Each structure stands twice: as C-alpha cells, then as structure tokens.
Amino acid sequence: MSTFGKLFRVTTYGESHCASVGAIVDWMPSSTGLELTAQDIQVQLSRRRPGQSDLTTPRNEKDLHGVTLGTPIGLLVKNEDQRPHDYTETDLYPRPSHADYTYLEKYGVKASSGGGRSSARETIGRVAAGAIAEKYLKTVYGIEIVAFVSSVGKIHLPALLAPPSLAKLLATISREEVDKHPTRCPHQTTAEKMTQRIIRAKDASDSIGGTVTCVIRNVPSGLGEPVFDKFEAELGHAMLSIPATKAFEIGSGFRGTEVPGSKHNDAFVRRPDGSLGTKTNWSGGVQGGITNGEDIYFRIGFKSPATISQQQETAQYDGTSGTLAARGRHDPCVVPRAVPIVEAMAAIVVLDQLLQQDARKAAASRLPPIKTLPPTMVMPKKL
Amino acid sequence: MSTFGKLFRVTTYGESHCASVGAIVDWMPSSTGLELTAQDIQVQLSRRRPGQSDLTTPRNEKDLHGVTLGTPIGLLVKNEDQRPHDYTETDLYPRPSHADYTYLEKYGVKASSGGGRSSARETIGRVAAGAIAEKYLKTVYGIEIVAFVSSVGKIHLPALLAPPSLAKLLATISREEVDKHPTRCPHQTTAEKMTQRIIRAKDASDSIGGTVTCVIRNVPSGLGEPVFDKFEAELGHAMLSIPATKAFEIGSGFRGTEVPGSKHNDAFVRRPDGSLGTKTNWSGGVQGGITNGEDIYFRIGFKSPATISQQQETAQYDGTSGTLAARGRHDPCVVPRAVPIVEAMAAIVVLDQLLQQDARKAAASRLPPIKTLPPTMVMPKKL
Amino acid sequence: MSTFGKLFRVTTYGESHCASVGAIVDWMPSSTGLELTAQDIQVQLSRRRPGQSDLTTPRNEKDLHGVTLGTPIGLLVKNEDQRPHDYTETDLYPRPSHADYTYLEKYGVKASSGGGRSSARETIGRVAAGAIAEKYLKTVYGIEIVAFVSSVGKIHLPALLAPPSLAKLLATISREEVDKHPTRCPHQTTAEKMTQRIIRAKDASDSIGGTVTCVIRNVPSGLGEPVFDKFEAELGHAMLSIPATKAFEIGSGFRGTEVPGSKHNDAFVRRPDGSLGTKTNWSGGVQGGITNGEDIYFRIGFKSPATISQQQETAQYDGTSGTLAARGRHDPCVVPRAVPIVEAMAAIVVLDQLLQQDARKAAASRLPPIKTLPPTMVMPKKL
Amino acid sequence: MSTFGKLFRVTTYGESHCASVGAIVDWMPSSTGLELTAQDIQVQLSRRRPGQSDLTTPRNEKDLHGVTLGTPIGLLVKNEDQRPHDYTETDLYPRPSHADYTYLEKYGVKASSGGGRSSARETIGRVAAGAIAEKYLKTVYGIEIVAFVSSVGKIHLPALLAPPSLAKLLATISREEVDKHPTRCPHQTTAEKMTQRIIRAKDASDSIGGTVTCVIRNVPSGLGEPVFDKFEAELGHAMLSIPATKAFEIGSGFRGTEVPGSKHNDAFVRRPDGSLGTKTNWSGGVQGGITNGEDIYFRIGFKSPATISQQQETAQYDGTSGTLAARGRHDPCVVPRAVPIVEAMAAIVVLDQLLQQDARKAAASRLPPIKTLPPTMVMPKKL
C-alpha cells in the first residue's frame, strides 16, 4: 500500500523521472490550530537534497492563514529534472541489486525510469509529512528527534561502542551539531575518516554503505500496542520501508543478546519529579512493546548504493550474459542524506501512536472508579 | 491492534494466567478446499512448548470433514495452568525490563498476571495461525520455512560468518536437522557450547539472549509492496512483534553496510529453467522491497530474559527503592522455543503478500496488450 | 473481511451448523476498569434467540474479577444444535434468494450447512460485542440505544408517518416497552395487526419482511469523519452488513427528499444548558457526516425470509429446472429478533467513532492557542 | 479517514475555497499497461460541473506515454474560484443543516470557507478516481455503470414503480440517453416535470431534493465479503459518504419488505450460456452479500440543499436567536450533478471488490483437488 499509519496517515505518489511527487497527510491534530508554514517543511526537504525539492504547493497557505485545520493536507513537489530516458543499455540489463528486475516481476511492465516507486524521490513526500508531524510533537511535548551517521563502511562512531558515552551523546545531540560536518557524523575526527572513506569509494567508481542512529527524546510513556503493533515493530516497519535499508535494531539490539539478564535488566529509579525512570536504558525506551518515557534510540543499516560507475558482469533480461557498462557519476554514499528521512519516519510513527494512546486514555479516563477493584489491580500512588 | 495482515489476517486474544488464548484466522484460501487437520497445527504448538499448548477446538474438524472453506477459522487453547496470583511482592515492584510498568502506564490498570498481553502465551495463537498458512504455502508452492538458533550469548554458529557456508546451510537446512539438538542449533559442536552457556546462566540464577536465523525457500518473485509495505518492512514488523526481540536484519544486514557496492551487488545469471537468478544473495531475496525468487533469510535478536532468579536492586511502583527478591526457576534462555514462533510469523507474512500479489497479477492479466507500448516498456522475452 | 471497526474492532468467526461461533473484541476502553459480567452480554443474546445462545466462555471472568483490562476479549458460544447435514435435496438445488449459489461462486466450495457465514448464527458474536460496547456507552455517556419493529409487510407503525409523534416516540421509547409485545412493536394495536400478518404468512407457508427503526440518544456532537467515513456512512455499512437487509435511511430519509429545503432545514435554538440544538431534527442527528448532539435515528429494511415452507419452481445447480420441495417449519418473519442485532451494530459504530474523536480532541486540546488567529476562525463564546 | 477502499484505494484532500483539490489513486491494475488519458477522466469531471474542474496534472502523462504502471496516480484540480471569504454574517451564524456547526464541534476551528471537507468540491477527486477505475472495468469486463435521476421532489420516474418496466430500463439505459435532458432523467415527460419543479423551487428561493438510481451491468458473480463487508454494505457506505445523501436501498429495497417471500424469492433459471441466472431480480444482484451476476441496482436519496436564498430564523453560534439573511443564488437541486459522483463511487467499490476476489480465486485455484471431499461439497458440473 502507499499509505502508512493508522490514525496519522501519510499517502504518497510519484517516482523518479515523473512530473511531480507528493503526499496527502491525514489526521493532523488541530484545535484553535497549529501554525504551520512552508518553511517548517522546507527545512527538512533541503537537508534531504538542497535545491532539488522545493515545496511548491503547501495546500492552503494563503487562504487558511498558515493554520492547520485537522483536515488532510496535500503536498506537491515538482520534478525539475524530468529528463527523457536515454540509456539504451539499461533497456537490456536489469541493474544488479536494483529494483529493475523485481518491479518487472511484480508489475509486468518495465518502468523506463528505473527503480520506479522505490526511487529515492518518493521519500520527498515522507520528509514533508514528517516535518508536519514533528511540528506538533515539538510544540506539544517538546519531543526532539535527532538522527546522525554512526558508521560509513567499517568506520564507526566510537561512542556507540561504550554505553555511558552513548547515553551522553543521545541525551544531548542536536541537529545543528549533526549538520556541522557534511557527513552528518557528530564526532569530527570520525567524520573526517568517513569523508576519506567516501572519497576512496568515489575514486574507485565504487560505493559504500553505513548506519544511521536516531534518538527520540521526551516521548510520553504508554505508546505502542502490546501485540502486533508494538512501538518497536511499527518503528522497524517504518525504517525498513526506507530505500536501501537492510537492518534495524532498538536499544541494545544485536549486541544486547550477548549481555546476561542480570546486567541487561533496566532497574527502576525514582526520578526527581516522582515518576519512575530506569538506571540504564538497554531497552531503548520500550518494554513489552510500549514506551517507558526513557530516550528511544535505534540504529538502521543502509547497504552500499547499487549504482556504481564501473563495469559489471551480469545477465541481460533475456538471460544473455554480458557486461553492463560503467555509467555516469553517482552518489557513492547515501547515509548523510538519509538522516532527515529517518527523522521523518520516526516522527510519523510517534504521532500515529500518540493519537492511538490519546484515544485509549481519553476514553478510559471517563470511566468512574470501581469500588470493588481488588487491591492488586489498583494503580499505586506516587510517593 | 490485535490483528496482523491485510488479506490473510490473524487476530489473537489472551494473555498469561487467563482461561484460554486463541485466534481467528481470516482469508485462508480454499477451492475444493485444503485438507487441514488439528495435527497440522499441533506439531508446531508442541515445538513451541511440549505438552502445554494442546489445541482443543479446531473449529470445524468434524462437521466440515477437515476441509478449509475460505471462511474464518477459530482457534482455542485452554490454559491448564491458571493459578491464582500469589506473588505479593510483585504487587509492589514493577519487574525490571518487564512490561509491568509500561502496561500500567498504558492501561492504567495493573494486570495481576504480569506482562499481560506481552506474555509468551499470546504467541500460541500466532503459532497455530502460522501452521495453517504454512500448509497452504507448502502445498501450493513447496515453500519451506526453517528457523534455527544462530547464537546464544557470544557463541555464534560459525557458518554465519562465512558467506559460502552460510549459503549452503540455508539451501539445505531442515526442521528435522534443527530439532536434533535441544538448543535447535544445527551445528552439533556449537550446540553443545550453547548448552553449556545456558547451564552457566541457569547456575548463576541469570539468563542469556541469542539470535534466531530463518530461511524461506521457494518464494515466488514479485511479492511485497514498493513503498511502505516492502516485503522486508512487513517481515521486520512481524518479527519485532515477537516478545523480547530487539533487532532484525535481512540478507547481509548490518555487516553488509561495510561491503562496497561492487562486491555487494548481486549480479544476475541465467538459471537452468531460463529465468534470472543472482550469483550471490547479499540482498537476502528482496530488492527494492520486492522478492526476487532467491532464498529469503533474516536474523532476529532476542534479549536475555528479564525474569531471573536473583535479587535485584530496583524501585517500587511508588518510588521507594528496595530489593526485589529472587523468584522461582525460570527459563534462562528462550531462543530455542522462539524458533516455531519465527516460522509462524514468516508464514503469515508470505501468505498475506502472496494474496496481495495474486490480486494484482490476476487483475492485470485480464488487460489486453497495448499495441502502442514503447519498446522500452515491453517485457523482454526469455531466451 | 471478518473485522469491523477502526479502533474498537470486532472480529467474528463461525457459521451455521459448526461447533461454535465467537468473536474477539479489541480496544475496549479501560482505566481502573469497567465491571463487565457475563450477564451484561447474556441479556442481549437472549433477546436475539432465547435459550439458544448461551455465552460459555466470557474469557476472564474469574481470574480478572469481571473487570475489563483494555486488552482483547474472546467470546465463544457453543452450538448445541450441530446436527449432521441431512437434506439431500439442497445438494442439488441452490435455494432461491439464499446465499447457496453466490457462496459457491465465491469460494468454489459448497458449504453443506447452507448459507455458511451469512447465517444468522454469525450475528451472535456481534450481539455479544455490541453489549460490551454498550456497557461503556451507557456508563460514561448515558447513551441509550433502542430499536423496535416499525413495520411488518404493509403494516406500519403510525407514529413514523407524522414527524411530531415520531419525535416524541424516539425521545422516550425504552427496551422494556419494546419487549412488552413479542413483535417488538411499541404500539399495541399495530403490534396485534403485525402478529396477525405474521400468522397469515405462516399459515400460507410463506414469509414476510419488515423494518426496524432505531434511536440513539445522548451521543456527543463531533463524531464521524467528514469524507468517506461519515457517521451515517459507517452506520449504513454496519446495518447493511446484517443478513437480509436491503435498505437504510437516516433522519428524514427517502421521504425527506420530497420536502423543500426551507422546511427541511433544522434551524438552531439555544438549549437550556447554553449549547446549540435544533428545532426540528430532519437530519437525524448528523450534518455533514458529523453528529450534532440530537437524537440519531434510522430505519432498516429487512426482506422477507427466503426460507419458506412451500414448493418453488427453480433450477438445480446444473441448470435442470425442477421443483424444490417444501421444507420444515421456519421463522416467517425475522424482524423482531433483528432488534438486538441492530442495537449491537449501532453500539459498535458509536464506540468506534467515539474513540476516534477522543484521539482528535485529546491531541488538539494540548496545542497552545494561536495569537494570530483571524477572528473568523475563532470559536465563538457561548452566551 | 480520507481514504476509501481496501486494495483499490482512493485518498482525497481539499475543500471549498482552497487552492486545489486532489486525490491519490493506489493499486490501479496494470500489466503491459492500460492506456489512460486525461480525457478519460475529464469526461466525467465535466459531467460533474462543466468548465470548473479541469484536470491539470494527470501525473505522468508525457513521460509514461499515458500508460498506467500499477503505481499510485496523483491527481490535482486547481481551484480557479478561490475567493477570499467575504460573508461576515456566516461568521456569526452556523447555517442550518450545513456542516458549519458540526465541524466546529469536531475540529474546534471554524473553517471560514463553510462546509470545509464536506464541500462538494471534494468530490472532484472521487470522480477522477472513479473514471480511472471505470476504464479498467469497461476494458476488461465490459462493466457498464449508469446512474440517472429517478425523482425530484414528489415527481418520480414512472418506471420505478413497475418491476417489469424497471427491469427493461435498467437493462438498456445509457449515459448518452441520460444526458439528453439537463435533469438527467431518462423519461422526457417526467424530466420536463422535474424541470418545472426545480424552477418552482428557484423562484421561491427554495430548494428541492431527489433520488438517483444506478445500475451496474456485467459484474461477475462472487464479489463481496460474507460478513461485515458485504457488497451492498460497501456500496451503501460509499453512497452515504456522498454529501447530502440520507438513504440507500438495493434491489427491492424498502418496498420489498412488503412483498411475501414466495413472490420476492428470485428463482433460478438456466441462462443460454449454461450458467445460472434468476427469473426475477428483487435481490438487485446480491445474495448473502455476494454478487450473483445479475444487474446490480440501487437508489440513493439526496436531501434538499441546505443553502437557500431566503431568510431563516435560527440561532447564532453564541445562542442569540436572529435572522440569517437571504444569500446569493444557489443551485436549487443537486441531483443531476450527483449522477457522475454516484457512478464514480460505484466504480471504486466494484474494482476494490474485484481485486479482493481475484486474490481469493487465484490463491484457491492453485490448490490441488482433494480426493476425499464428500460429495455434498463438490461443485456440481454445468449441464
């Protein structure tokens, strides 16, 4: 389906090389309204790809005074770079590790524009929708979503390897800091190494993958559905829907499977405000599929881009083996530009889950207390 | 929501300590019917937990001659072990890294039975539903789904580390082989080490996590939706909805992010039957969110069980810090029993996606060919 | 699909002649819980068909102290009357205006038990789910849902023809009053005529249809989604999913199409509590798809039962024309028993829409007021 | 939600007085593609409102050669008539039987542009989406969808009252015939009377309602889901989501409730091609929620437009009673323009149900026959 979300819902259309891409955003909360300007959206679009994804039609900017109304918002970004198809060779070859072959298998039609819907252009609609969701989350809950590049090839951000320094990084990192270096890695020495690694890939007409880590701060506890729609399951779904992703982990992730329960368990402590927090946060802010109020953090693996500027031995559509010629210059590493896309999908998941929990809580809060409730079921008082 | 799937849909109810758990399975395909017996389901229930999850009501076994009708199937497993709640201490303490606290935050009610819906008992309904889906997949496509334990703590199955031996393992592994050792690791030496590791955890009143790897063979190409519901996104969603999971990766996963594109790209080759296959399979059977006919394989990380038999320093619900006493014996490692749950969720995802692609293909196949179609869009003939 | 609802969701299974029918009810609101007993549900099951639909498994009655927890509720009613199939003739004939033929066309399997899922037995799950929803609606909002028989054949409840007497009836009618006469028509003289009409049908081995009218009182304003999921569209969907229904109208319905706008418009008046109400209620409590706080009322047409005890000239499955013999006694008029089913579906729709609006309102209420809001958009103060 | 459909899905945005309205159409079937031109869509847009709803952005007309690809289609119609809001009086008064009041109750914001999303402008997106669906239905199945005005006020098309003449009308009516008279009533004498009735309403600064009847020919049997998503329930949902609708009936509808079963039952007959048809068609093409291959016909009631050009005594938002002044000229009767909207929603429902049944049938057709199937379950051979 081209729609994501249960209550806060984003529907996108558009692919590479077509006239425009866009989205419809449904169920944006509104009361006396939330001021939303094109600029709120443009900031993230520009972080995705500067100068190439200008929002031309924020639906109702003028007549509605830049105020959201709770009704769906239409978004459109025109494609300036809508060149006619001129690569005759790719008419013969499905590009290795691209979606050319699988799309043909799915739709029975060769989309001449390459990967079609799996194109990175489609993500423009998501980034715009995420920026809208984020405006609400920030205004109401002070929720902060910050993603950054945590590895390029084998070069990893050192902080990730040590829980205490990781916790500190996650607690304080800001987008401004992330953007200080073009690789969007917030550790300058590592960022430089990453740049070298990317240049090396470029010089070799090759490409290299990496990981993005993201933290979401100030999310209320209680979000997520206990069984199939656990918070981390929805989040994983959202992240694995971003092109080129191959892996997702939350909290301690794969590494945590090696840590014994006695060390991995997050003991509770009383926070200054009287609520419960946890001493450690191996869980990554979710327990049993539901947020516990601690920082939510997760990591996503992006494979090396399939488009490379060197010859490849491979088969044509008809089975003939041959050599797919080297092509023009391409981006040898996409993780820096994936940062705002990760943030966007995170914002969409959080707002969708917030709306669901709002429904539960509001409906439950109207029930009168039960006198006969057994003591074991009573919610304990805070100290 | 308590429902998973778009067309093939599974809805479950039930939690720990309640009278029964069950599921409703909707949209099971049928024509002149598919013979389905209670035994088909019981096999996997018993692999999940021998002797404790007997299917008592396969809805229509007698009157409908064991034949599925395309209408929903109700499933019920009674809880024999429905003991009254007797742990007064857990009335005071939210257990660390359990769902006690987050459920209270979500529902405003303390479920005396502990983790409530996030209990492992809920997975009975999934395993039963998965067995039903699998019967169709095996009968019609010869699809084989085999999961196994690939690590316990720091003890990893060696094959995972070397692509060629991994490919061979994935191509041949069977459930019989997996079940030869109680740890469900198909490499006897490693399995023994895992057993020792689990015993060590047990002796220390501690617990240990691990990973499960799963392969799905013979899945047709073309499954998966290009944008939000990519095959791997649905698969990741399904796996991350299993209790205690923290990580998911498909194909080369996190490790693949370190491999340059020139090596990571899966070049095409002509298969003996004339169709296209790939030389390598770093992609794990999906490209652009859509299956390509190669083996689908993925790995899931399960954290160390939160229930341990040793004292823990932690806070009570009201914030008072204290010591949660050691409790009775518990399973120090759950990954061996997670194997059939992983297989079940995989079967549900594949059947749901198959039905969606069946709709697309059947509808498209009725369209007459277009004469004016430009050559670049025509599906190439096989050699 | 076998699921109804977006947030409050009911999934049913089961059909005629199978071992049991049941439902899973998801998203029942709970806080410190809502006391729910088997008796709450049994009352409506017994109104549906006395003595034949005893709830045997209210999931968690004992261990959970009869308190809802917000988690899904499993419901099961065993079929006492699970006779083997013994009508050889219906193996040859699709019964006219039954679902025998269309089910065969849909599923490719002849369900030996006749109408299969379209059987009235399936409605047991709905009635149980509706009773659960109603418990919340009544407890929290004092919402009252009362359906009654408004016509049998050509015998119509006179009040329906005159707006003022209709309004009065709708404002005061109770279930007790409805149940005073077995036809469930709240006007004794008309009820007697209806009885005579039903007896006449029975004596002629024939059947007769009728209409059910339903009122929902005390529904808050603001429920319903503006475009595709208008309140009346969801309500119509729910009602037209009840077996044997052919028509639905809300408020003035078909008759209202003949009334000029100047008379049909519901002018606003100030209610004693300062809120706005309407002088007339031709709209039936909804405007633009959204409830306005006035009584919601609607009417549903049920066709004459297709099962009749007389011979019918018709064709066999293979096309041979012949005579389908008279069969045993059947219910010549089903509308009295449809009353609790209509109430159940109404309750499900209202609770589902309430939860959706709760999400919207709760999320919107947290937004800070906007200072620059143009005056035309400001919500006016009440006098 | 702003999305309709399960597989073939339409999402709309936009309301009155905003910059544009549009839709995203998902899951349009495609193989070697279906030729789709802007003209295919424009025809119905122009029937909806000539000259005011020109499609400006059929997404990918040029680069994709007017061929659908199976991927989502974005549609946009700019609003030429985007006047600033200048009605100060409606800032004080909620217009009677409009959505002004209920929208304020729902969203907490006064949409200055009046009815907001319930505006007729929103239906542009639906009409465009329906035209796309219809192209497939016509190309592949020869499905014909024809709606016409069957009453204006108390003036009814005579054919509706007599089953035989109705059957004949439904079997032959075409859009060309419907469009011969501006009222879109296919009976010239009646059409003239309707015109007079509309003129009378106009002269009285009043408005008048009416009904639209629609037939869908050549729909395959087997469409519709047996329980909650019966074909007629989905159809009713779709129709009751059109602005100003208050009533829906299929087949014999309300009138059929007065006809005894012995007469109302549709006996089967062998069709010339060997398949089964029915002698009569009181059912309106559906039995048990599933299509039987006969003509599907239904009728929808539209209330008299709420906007009238005369003074109305009513209350202001703040409760003050007063007189809402007469406003400018408005359309005194909307049913003629509702005709293409009804056809569009019908097409959307049919294609969505076709795709679902395609999934069921394709999946079931791959199952091998069961040898042990009891004779009563075997599908009978055609003669």
Layout of helices and strands:
The structure is a homotetramer of 383-residue chains.
Chain A: E1 3-4, E2 9-13, E3 20-26, H1 38-48, E4 73-78, H2 100-107, H3 123-141, E5 144-152, E6 155-156, H4 163-172, H5 175-178, H6 188-203, E7 210-217, H7 231-240, E8 245-250, H8 253-256, H9 261-264, E9 268-270, E10 276-278, E11 286-287, E12 290-291, E13 296-302, E14 312-315, E15 321-324, H10 335-365
Antiparallel strand pairs in A: 1-2, 2-3, 3-4, 5-6, 5-7, 7-13, 8-13, 9-10, 11-12, 14-15
Helix pairs in contact in A: 1-3, 1-10, 3-10, 7-10
Brief overview, please?
4 copies of one chain form a homotetramer. Chain A has 383 residues and is of the alpha+beta class.
Question: Could you describe the 3D structure shown?
Answer:
Chains A, B, C, D: One of its GO terms (molecular function) is chorismate synthase activity. Chains A, B, C, D: Pfam families: Chorismate_synt. Chains A, B, C, D: InterPro entries: Chorismate_synth (IPR000453), Chorismate_synth_AroC_sf (IPR035904), Chorismate_synthase_CS (IPR020541). Chains A, B, C, D: Pathway: Metabolic intermediate biosynthesis; chorismate biosynthesis; chorismate from D-erythrose 4-phosphate and phosphoenolpyruvate: step 7/7. The structure is a homotetramer of 383-residue chains. Chain A has helices at 38-48, 100-107, 123-141, 163-172, 175-178, 188-203, 231-240, 253-256, 261-264, 335-365, and strands at residues 3-4, 9-13, 20-26, 73-78, 144-152, 155-156, 210-217, 245-250, 268-270, 276-278, 286-287, 290-291, 296-302, 312-315, 321-324. The first copy, chain A, has 383 residues and is of the alpha+beta class. Chain A folds into two domains: 1-142, 4-Layer Sandwich (Chorismate synthase, AroC fold), CATH 3.60.150; 150-340, Chorismate synthase AroC (Chorismate synthase, AroC fold), CATH 3.60.150.10. Chain A has a five-stranded antiparallel sheet. In chain A, strands 1-2-3-4 form a four-stranded antiparallel sheet, covered by helices on one side. The first copy, chain A, has a two-stranded antiparallel ribbon with strand order 9-10. In chain A, helix 7 (231-240) packs antiparallel against helix 10. The termini of chain A are far apart. Chains in contact: A-B, A-C, A-D, B-C, B-D, C-D.
